[in-house]
Write a structure and sequence with these properties.
By secondary structure, the chain is α/β, with parallel strands linked by helices. Among the domains are: about 260 residues, 3-Layer(aba) Sandwich (Rossmann fold); about 120 residues, 2-Layer Sandwich (GMP Synthetase, Chain A, domain 3), CATH 3.30.300.30. The chain has 21 helices and 30 strands. Strands 12-11-8-6-7-14-15-23 form an eight-stranded mixed sheet, with helices on both faces. A seven-stranded mixed sheet has the order 5-4-17-16-18-19-20, sandwiched between helices. α3 crosses α4 and α5 packs parallel to α12. It starts with 6 loop residues before the first helix and ends in a 7-residue tail after the last helix. About 55% of the residues are buried. Bound molecules: 5'-O-[(S)-ethoxy(hydroxy)phosphoryl]adenosine. The site of 5'-O-[(S)-ethoxy(hydroxy)phosphoryl]adenosine has 21 residues, from α12, β19, β20, β24 and β25.
Length: about 650
Amino acid sequence: MTEQSQGPALDNLLTESRTFPPSDEFAAAANAGADMYAAADADREAFWAAQAERLHWDTKWDQVLDWSDAPFAKWFVGGKLNVAYNCVDRHVESGHGEQVAIHWEGEPGDTRTITYNDLLAQVSKTANALTELGLQAGDRVAIYMPMVPEAIFSMLACARLGLTHSVVFGGFSAEALRSRIEDAAAKLVITTDGQYRRGKPAALKPAVDEAVAQTPTIEHVLVVKRTDTEVAWTEGRDIWWNDLVDKQSDKHTPEAFDSEHPLYILYTSGTTGKPKGILHTSGGYLTQASYTHHNVFDLKPDTDVYWCTADIGWVTGHSYIVYGPLSNRVTQVVYEGTPNTPNEGRHWDIVQKYKVSIYYTAPTLIRTFMKWGKDIPAGYDLSSLRVLGSVGEPINPEAWIWYRENVGAGRAPIVDTWWQTETGAIMISPLPGVTSTKPGSAQRALPGISAKVVDDQGNEVPHGGGGYLVLDKPWPSMLRGIWGDNERYRDTYWSRFAEQGFYFAGDGAKYDNDGDIWLLGRVDDVMNVSGHRISTTEVESALVSHPTVAEAAVVGATDPTTGQGIVAFVILRGDAADGGDDAVKALRDHVAKEIGPIAKPRQVMVVPELPKTRSGKIMRRLLRDVAENRSIGDVTTLADSSVMDMISQGLNKGSED
Ligand code: WTA
């Protein structure tokens, strides 16, 4: 890391200087109190043992943490539990079988109401079906499905049997599925005939057929009928879900597995082409997923209706739709489709209909809602909402305030939760009944978690300083490795600060003067302009704070004089000017005013859309290609690959002086 520009940039990141303490009423009733930080600091292992006690263990552990083989952790050593029992059976046994577990809302408007009794019956039948197919504890199962309840039944049935699932996002290609099946040597794929997307059925099984043609480990393809799409059929290999699962007994006795038994593999893209299979195990993972869900969202299982808008294809869907919430006996909404089907009010319609009280989404969606306009949420009764969450990227203060005012009625606390596929569960976040929230900051590590911002040498930076985010102590839900590649695990996460033994998250961060943490985006998204460190997020935040801008993405493009130059891609609001020279000049000046002349973008390009992955992350790599006049790289993970053509055509609107 080279010399940084600290003070001025940070001061200007605080485009919103108000802080928002919880109401006295919220604080008084909150699950988590301020005392938890001290309790965790006083005895970390005792603190985590107490969190693990929230689960049911068939055999209690004899050691909380074994870190002797670092960086390969073992938590709750010697303990045995069944993850699915913890998420389903015990709620039925405690008398809550009639409680709704899932209010499922299909994109076309069809619905299913699934109680814990129903969930137990379905998970048991699915487990019996998988056993009939010959699967045994330790085998891997690929799940390639849209957001239908059977996807959740499948994950839980795997957990129940000690099968390791590998969920592959339903928007990924056949090739992506193939490589993941191959890497994990999966024996079974569970899929659907098709999925609803923007009001239309789209086939899904053809991608499976293509993938498994080249994966000899696959013995069966289990197919849920969702769209009634005609599908090709391979006799002996392919099985309809209804034919196999429906006839099974709805009774199944779960077996307890070792705390370190592999629960799932989830692939995430790395800097090289080959995705990394992030491995999570059972006891520690469930402990932290459950603990964070209970405390960060303040879940009251008897009264709350929770909704996490993620897809089960991502880690957020694993930890905050399936394992965390269900372990806490949640009543939750699961929605199958897109936010603008049949219209841009769909989410608010769902909130109103089910009286959703906790809503967890991503900044990119919040900015999309901003683009659509505040009149849309204003048309619905959102008064049930009491906690709002954000995850996936830094949330710019402008979007944070918009979220608070237009969704949370200026009342609901916002928890900006930082974590990763690798961390398994939330690591840095406000506690909604404790923290005075600051728009744009994830603030501090949760009780029991330790995070630091360090410089190049691994020394913690002072308040007001910036550097790398590291996790300096092992945590229960940490990844246990990369599937089949221990070397890559060490290299990717533990080599950067090997001497100190820090896990390097790959994110840049700063402390403000109070010591609160501000995430600044991936380190490769931090630009270096004339020796000054400027985060793409800071510039984006400045741009989005201009009244004409709906959304912005900023990249650092190689510049012969300054190292990198800042190139901004902006989408203007519907009612704004057409993006002529004056509008562009105004934006460049605005950024200079907000952050300082050093941050003035070299170019501002007005574009109709930004390239995003199907999970909604902006693909800055592609924008860098455009900004550096390279031919555009691999676009296969883009949600809509025509976006790049539109952007390239918009290039001549760029302005430069
Ligand atoms: C980014 C998603 C800032 C970060 C759970 C991280 C965030 C990466 C936040 C992990 C946040 C996630 N503020 N940045 N609240 N949450 N990120 O693996 O760069 O899909 O390293 O996990 O998203 O993305 P992943």
